[in-house]
Automatic annotation (TrEMBL), chain A:
Component of the ER membrane protein complex (EMC). EMC8 and EMC9 are mutually exclusive subunits of the EMC complex. This is ER membrane protein complex subunit 9. InterPro entries: EMC8/9, MPN. Pfam families: UPF0172. Residues 4-138 form the MPN domain. GO terms for cellular component: EMC complex. PANTHER family: ER MEMBRANE PROTEIN COMPLEX, ER MEMBRANE PROTEIN COMPLEX SUBUNIT 9. Transmembrane segments: none annotated. Belongs to the EMC8/EMC9 family. The gene is EMC9.
Automatic annotation (TrEMBL), chain B:
It is found in: Endoplasmic reticulum membrane. This is ER membrane protein complex subunit 2. Keywords: Endoplasmic reticulum, Membrane, Repeat, TPR repeat. It comes from the Eukaryota. Component of the ER membrane protein complex (EMC). Its main location: endoplasmic reticulum. Belongs to the EMC2 family. It is a peripheral membrane protein. GO terms for cellular component: EMC complex. InterPro entries: EMC2-like, TPR-like_helical_dom_sf, TPR_EMC2, TPR_rpt. Residues 90-199 form the EMC2 TPR-like domain. It comes from Oreochromis niloticus. PANTHER family: TETRATRICOPEPTIDE REPEAT PROTEIN. TPR repeats lie at residues 155-188.
Length: 205, 288
């Protein structure tokens, strides 16, 4: 099927989300601000939950709110990510498949991304992700060669650096937003920090 | 690297009190506990008196949570020296083995405790945790059910069981566990709200009505529970939109949904005005 590109911002926020809640299963939505057609560019993500992933109300609420925000900001939901609490098991759970199915109803080339906890140690070299795509109503593993992360080394360095300096505590997911609605689940502050670290002035292109 | 005392400008007594608060609240902020506890132990051990033993235990468990086996072993060795025959310390030895994924050895320790003392709940619960860590959900659920037949009032266990059932998508049984919890603890708004979420997830008109009632109950117990407020809005809206309800039920639920929507809007307006106020305050010369 088609190519998928994962931006630095999307990857770093997913990674920080997993680091913020290492003992929980976490999930979130993958967004794109690029026009459709050609490769799917995942330009951003919205971290959703770190508790009770299979329960419906908050997931439905989050999907609605993110949908509204997307239509206001010329983005669209193009995928779903999840990291399981059990590090040795990175297979998609029934609730992951269900939510991904829902997204695929609205976007043909939707992707399902599982973070592989066992590959997230400090010395990992490969992106700790496993991607699935929809074919004949089933989710099948995507060919690794169709997944692109531009400047992977820089992205990895930024993710590690932000985690070391404790920036993952700045990340707000939808769950945290509901605990304190003054917190911003679009994570503008974190986005700015990531841009700064990724800018050419810092020696990265 | 700056010490905790330097960074936060606190003395050893405040560090000790902070650790006690985290113990009492059962917080799992393991990284913080390790930072504060390690410094307290290495620099102020002599001042802590008998408190030091419970602090060793607390820091040891936090250290395991952060993969700091060096620190965990140090604490464990001190505890073993002081309490050589203690079941409590034996359980900690087992926990360290669990952290190192040496589950068979850990189980041997717990079995030894249970042979000596069959009522030792801590050892039984650790055995169930091992099953969970190994991904053996069905066995964990079975063992936890057996445990709860004996120890009916153990809230922590009921809650753990409800989580296991939710992950297995067995919402009926999860609801049953939450019902037990609500009976034991009728003033806990979180149990009401979780019960409502499970009922909502189960779906169907009857469950939606129950879920609406319990979201409302959660709000009565804590009117700032946003999940309950949104849940009330969503469940009432769904009921009102159902073709199976009478005109009166439809009207009532539209009223509930409208009320919830007003409260939600009010809460967001208030919170963003607080944000703006706060940022305005920070701009004032006082903070320059």
């Amino acid at each position: 099927m088609g190519e998928v590109e994962l931006s630095c911002r999307a990857y770093v926020k997913m990674y920080l989300h997993a680091c913020l809640f290492p003992r929980c299963s976490i999930n979130g939505l993958l967004l794109s601000s690029s026009p459709t057609g050609g490769a799917v560019c995942v330009t951003d993500c919205v971290p959703l939950l770190h508790s009770h992933l299979p329960l419906a109300p908050i997931t439905q609420l989050a999907l609605t709110q993110v949908d509204v925000w997307c239509s206001q900001t010329q983005q669209r939901i193009v995928g779903y990510y999840q990291a399981n609490a059990c590090v040795s098991d990175n297979s998609p759970t029934p609730c992951a498949l269900k939510i991904a199915d829902k997204i695929a109803e609205q976007f043909d080339n939707a992707v399902l991304l599982m973070l592989d906890g066992s590959k997230m140690s400090p010395d990992y070299r490969v992106p700790p992700i496993v991607m699935y795509e929809r074919k004949d109503s089933r989710w099948i593993l995507k060919d690794k060669h169709t997944i692109m992360l531009r400047q992977w080394e820089e992205t990895r360095a930024i993710a590690s650096q932000m985690m070391e300096s404790g920036d993952h505590t700045l990340l707000v997911d939808f769950d945290s937003h509901l605990d304190d609605i003054t917190k911003d689940w679009t994570n503008q502050k974190l986005n700015t920090k990531i841009e700064e670290l990724a800018s050419p002035a810092n020696g990265n292109i | 690297m700056a010490s905790v005392a330097e960074m936060y400008d606190v003395g050893w007594e405040e560090m000790r009190d902070k650790l006690r608060k985290w113990r009492e609240d059962n917080c799992r902020n393991s990284e913080q506990i390790v930072d504060v506890g390690e410094e307290l132990i290495s620099e102020h051990a002599s001042k802590l008196g008998d408190d030091i033993w419970i602090i060793y235990e607390q820091v040891m468990i936090a250290a395991l949570d952060c993969s700091r086996d060096d620190l965990a072993l140090t604490c464990l060795q001190e505890l073993r020296k002081q309490f050589p025959d203690s079941h409590r310390v034996k359980r900690l030895t087992g926990m360290r083995l669990e952290a190192l994924e040496r589950y068979d050895e850990a189980n041997k320790h717990y079995d030894a405790i249970l042979q000596d003392d069959p009522t030792n709940t801590a050892a039984r619960k650790r055995k169930i945790s091992i099953l969970k860590a190994q991904g053996k959900s069905t066995e964990a659920i079975r063992e936890l059910n057996e445990y709860l037949e004996q120890f009916v009032g153990d809230q922590e266990a009921w809650h753990e069981l409800s989580e296991l059932y939710i992950n297995e998508h067995d919402y009926g049984k999860a609801a049953f566990c939450l019902e037990e919890l609500m009976m034991i603890n009728p003033h806990n708004h979180l149990y009401c709200e979780q019960y409502a979420e499970v009922k909502y997830t189960q779906g169907g008109l009857e469950n939606l009505e129950l879920s609406r009632k319990y979201f409302a109950q959660a709000l009565r117990l804590n009117n700032r529970n946003m999940r309950a407020l949104f849940g009330l809005y969503m469940s009432a809206s769904h009921i009102a939109a159902s073709p199976k309800v009478s005109a009166k039920v439809k009207k009532d639920n539209m009223k509930y949904a409208a009320w919830a929507a007003t409260q939600i809007n009010r809460a967001y307006k208030l919170s963003w005005s607080i944000c703006t106020q706060y940022s305005e305050i920070l701009k004032s010369p006082l903070f320059a």
